[in-house]
Design a protein that fits this description.
By secondary structure, this protein is of the alpha+beta class. The chain has 3 domains: 9-54, no CATH class; 72-324, 3-Layer(aba) Sandwich (Rossmann fold); 346-619, no CATH class. 47% of the residues lie in helices and 16% in strands. It has helices at residues 112-119, 141-144, 163-174, 180-193, 209-221, 239-254, 293-297, 302-311, 313-324, 346-366, 368-385, 406-426, 429-432, 434-442, 447-477, 490-515, 522-536, 549-553, 557-569, 571-574, 589-619; strands spanning 2-5, 9-13, 17-22, 32-36, 41-46, 50-54, 57-60, 66-68, 71-81, 87-97, 100-105, 127-132, 135-136, 148-151, 227-231, 258-262, 274-278, 284-288. The strands form 4 sheets. The chain has a 6-stranded mixed sheet, sandwiched between helices. Helix 16 runs parallel beside helix 21 (589-619). The chain is elongated, with a radius of gyration of 30 Å. 47% of the residues are buried. The protein binds adenosine-5'-diphosphate and magnesium ion. Residues 82, 88, 106, 108-114, 621 line the site of adenosine-5'-diphosphate.
Length: 621
């Protein structure tokens, strides 16, 4: 078994040998070339004797790996036209080899972020192609996604987690086949590579802007990040941090990766190997080494260059094409591609549910203020329910007593409290996490796994809150007196109706959160949802038998939740002032099950809607 020392760069695996699984669970490459970073650990096998690629040593039985210097990212006549006919990018072509750092610059709105997303596989071009190490990024995204790191402009790290915890959860999601030790090693490696070891236990929101950006990059390097694309990583950073980030990118490129960086900062372009200058309208005005810009474009004054290119983008693009000697008339349309689905196997799905659920619990607890609010809420709502006058509780109300409608008021308040607790629990969730999920979904997290984890955590939390609420009100006002309609114990039965109401409200909250365009829309949604539940539940205002009101109320889960509790308490018998003809409230096993089943059906419908919505949001730009 031979040993050869390989500097950072690209290793070509001779045909006849096979590259085994990386410790970071990359897919096997049978032959061809692969990027090689000095701290990468991978197995290299041929058919007879296995061998190992460790640090900068390749142990190989026959031919040692050959170092090549070929271009490995190939962007060919890329174009993107919106459905309204507007052309965002046209004829963008360039190549980048392993070990290189490419800057994408241009005026605001030129299409730089769009180009970054196209190259990273996040959106599909109308024309042209992107190939990475010989594979079509868009057609073979599912197999390539572990090798592509895309760092969007917004931070995609949960701010409430520590750097190490965030990386650990990300490693669980992105390296599903790795063992625990391998994941820990990957986390240590990226912490070390990005100089974050000293901040491993710092919460992300306590990091400086530059450190936070490094944490986002660290996420993408967990799986290797052989093609690393960053969108404006230095926006909002001071000049010193700006330089620090560019130096870091240089180092990451030197380790054998292909790094593309969209940047508005022109101070450190000399650290890059190549500059791609986009004009407004998404065409190339210059593509080449930064040192040649002056001689080619006639000036190195960026203000002049931007003004000139902005004034006549087409002329700038024509000049570029003449220089490059290319006369691309029209790009061939991109082949229709069936995007390979992420393909998550059931075992991985369960693992994803477990990871996201554990992370969700940690996030809820880490947000101290909100956690305190959630913990206190059932006590506050229970205390408010106890304000109802009278001492009949959920027993027969005295028509001439303090409050002849006492049982109805208690049931109404209990149900509204359950609805409110459930909705308040979840309504902020998905809208706040959208950019993070978009990136995680692209990196392999399934929408079903993500949603399942959220549903489990939030439904259990809602059930726990409801338990406190029910316990306090039952202690203060007494248990239902008419026996159970369905499950034996009236207190348990009442609790089940309220817990299910709260869980469905939690799903309603998630559905609204998935629909909201921004955090600002959350409050109006919460107000309207709560008001609809109050009005249409049937406890406060009679809705049964009233044209339109009755039919609309069937669409409101609170109506069925209230009906289930009313059936348990036998409201028609104990509250003489309530409508006696209300069939949904009848104290019978069948009716109770019908009410609960309708609630569950609402839950199934909402889950389907949320899943559709989060997939849609993840696919949009
Ligand atoms: N989802 C979208 N739908 C329609 N137009 C968009 C969308 N996203 C971006 N654009 C438009 O495309 C152009 C390029 O956007 P972008 O790539 O973000 O530019 P840059 O990053 O160079 O500032 C802008 O004019 C922007 O308004
Ligand atoms: Mg941008």
């Amino acid at each position: 078994m031979g040993t050869s020392t390989v500097p950072a760069g690209t290793v070509t695996i001779p045909s006849g040998t096979a590259l085994g699984r990386f410790t970071d669970s990359d897919t096997p490459v049978m032959h061809g070339s692969m990027p090689y970073a000095p701290n990468l650990v991978a197995e290299v096998n041929d058919s007879t004797s296995p061998c190992l690629l460790v640090d900068d040593h390749v142990h190989t039985p026959a031919a040692p790996p050959v170092m090549t210097d070929t271009g490995c990212l190939n962007v060919g006549v890329l174009g993107l036209t919106l459905p309204n006919g507007r052309q965002l990018l046209s004829d963008v072509s360039f190549t980048a080899r392993h070990g290189s750092l490419t800057a994408i610059i241009g005026p605001s709105g030129a299409g730089k972020s769009t180009l970054a997303k196209l190259v990273g596989g996040a959106i599909t071009p109308t024309t042209g192609h992107v190939s990475f190490d010989g594979c079509d990024v868009h057609a073979e995204y599912a197999s390539l996604r572990h090798r592509i790191g895309l760092v969007p402009q917004d931070d995609v790290v949960h701010h409430q987690l520590t750097v190490e915890a965030a990386l650990r959860y990300a490693a669980e999601l992105r390296l599903p086949d790795a063992t625990k030790d391998e994941r820990s090693a990957a986390v240590r490696r990226v912490l070390d590579e990005l100089d974050l070891t000293g901040h491993a236990h710092t919460r992300v929101d306590k990091l400086s802007g530059g450190q936070r950006k490094r944490a986002s990059v660290a996420m993408e390097l967990l799986t290797g990040g052989y093609l690393l694309i960053l969108d404006e990583p230095t926006t909002g950073l001071d000049p010193a941090l700006d330089r620090q980030v560019m130096t870091m990118l240089r180092r990451l490129a030197d380790a054998g990766r292909i790094v593309l960086v969209v940047t508005h900062s022109l101070t450190h372009l000399d650290t890059c190997d190549q500059v791609v200058f986009l004009t407004p309208g998404g065409k190339i005005a210059y593509c080449g080494p930064p040192s040649d810009i002056g001689s080619v474009m006639g000036t190195t004054d960026w203000a002049d260059l931007f003004t000139r290119v902005g004034a006549d983008p087409d002329a700038a693009n024509r000049a570029f094409r003449t220089r490059a000697g290319t006369h691309v008339a029209t790009a061939p349309p991109a082949r229709p591609r069936v995007r390979s689905s992420p393909g998550v196997v059931p075992r991985q799905l369960l693992q994803q549910v477990s990871t996201v659920a554990r992370r969700q619990i940690r996030l809820v607890v880490a947000d101290r203020g909100y956690f305190a609010f959630l913990a206190l809420l059932p006590f506050i709502l229970a205390a408010l329910t106890l304000v109802v006058p009278g001492n009949a509780g959920l027993g027969m109300a005295n028509p001439r007593g303090d409050d002849p409608n006492e049982p109805a008021k208690i049931i109404t308040l209990l149900n509204i409290s359950a609805v409110f607790m459930g909705t308040a629990l979840t309504i902020r969730d998905l809208v706040g996490e959208r950019t993070i999920f978009r990136r995680e979904h692209a990196a392999g997290l399934s929408a079903s796994g993500y949603l399942c984890a959220k549903m489990v955590v939030y439904c259990l939390t809602a059930a726990a809150q409801t338990a406190v609420l029910t316990a306090i009100v039952v202690i203060g006002k007494g248990a239902p007196t008419r026996g159970a309609a369905a499950v034996g114990n009236p207190i348990v039965e009442l609790y089940l109706t309220l817990a299910l109401t709260a869980a469905i409200a939690a799903l309603t909250g998630l559905a609204m959160s998935a629909t909201a365009k921004s955090q600002d829309q959350i409050l109006p949604m919460l107000v309207v949802a709560t008001m609809l539940s109050i009005v249409f539940s049937g406890g406060l205002i009679p809705v049964s038998g009233r044209i339109l009101l009755d039919q609309v109320s069937w669409m409101i889960p609170a109506r069925w939740g209230f009906a289930a509790s009313a059936a348990t308490a036998d409201l028609r018998a104990i509250a003489p002032l309530m409508p006696q003809q209300e069939a949904l409230w009848s104290h019978h096993l069948d009716q109770w099950f019908v009410n609960m089943t309708v609630l569950i059906a609402f839950g199934a419908f909402l889950a389907g809607y949320i899943r559709w919505r989060i997939r849609l949001n993840a696919a949009s730009r």
